[in-house]
Amino acid sequence: MSTVTEDEWRVVDAIRSGLGVVDAARALNIDEQTCRRRLSAAGEELRMASSLPPAAVGHDTPGPRLQIPHLSPCPYCENFAGRFSARSGAPAVVFEDAVVYVFLAPAGMGGMPGHTLVTTKRHVETIFDLTDDEASVLGTTVARAARMLRAALDPAGVLVQQNNGVAAFQTVPHVHFHVIPKVAGPFPPIEPPELIPPDERATLASELRRHW
């Protein structure tokens, strides 16, 4: 895997010192576009490095192109087993059956509460590992979750997103769909969203279930 270059580190260090992008570009004697490009490249390299197992970082031996994020144990499987952190609290379950599990994410990504995750109960890393039956049930459940959010919250839009591999921004090694009620504005949000307290998520899940 490639690493952050010296030029990219210089931009990162300039930003860490408190400079804005324009001032950092001026201090490094480069144009603003180059500064932004180097900062973006460094950010992506660091994001990839933080998600992969140690053996995969900086390794020059060819390996599988699709790299799965490294998290052990799987946090979703832990939730299904009733184990969860005090910080995130118990999952706010909207629906579950023998195949799928639908629950609220700890934080809203669309500028409003209701960010819903649809996943399999079986541990499946990516969409490529699903059985045909699982894929069918997931598709139906995602559509149902979107209709639920529209009926319950009347958002300006509903975003459906699914990521496979670290390069595609997958962060949990368990296949899942994001169904996100959204206000108008940038995505992802400019400022990291705050965690919604577990009791508030539980209350919202109860309200959403009435529209399931």
**Number of β-strand runs:** 5
Radius of gyration: 20 Å
CATH architecture label of the largest domain: 2-Layer Sandwich
Total helix count?
Answer: 6
Structural class: alpha+beta
The CATH homologous superfamily of the largest domain is named HIT-like
Strand arrangement within the widest β-sheet reads: 1-2-3-5-4
Write down the overall mean pLDDT: 87
User: Topology as H/E string?
Assistant: HHHHEEEHEEH
CATH top level of the largest domain is Alpha Beta
Proportion of residues in extended strands: 5-15%
The gross shape turns out to be globular
Per CATH, what is the topology of the largest domain? HIT family, subunit A
Main sheet properties: 5 strands, antiparallel
What number of domains? 2
Instruction: Measure the end-to-end span.
Output: 44 Å
Tell me what the structure shows.
The protein is of the alpha+beta class and 212 residues long. It has two domains: 6-56; 75-209, 2-Layer Sandwich (HIT family, subunit A), CATH 3.30.428.10. It is 37% helix and 13% strand. It has six helices and five strands, in the order H-H-H-H-E-E-E-H-E-E-H. It has helices at residues 6-16, 21-28, 32-51, 75-80, 132-153, 198-209; strands at residues 92-96, 100-104, 116-120, 157-162, 176-182. A five-stranded antiparallel β-sheet has the order 1-2-3-5-4. Strand 1 and strand 2 form a beta hairpin. Helix 1 (6-16) crosses helix 2 and helix 2 (21-28) packs across helix 3 (32-51). The protein is globular and about 60 Å long. The N and C termini lie far apart (44 Å). The mean pLDDT is 87.
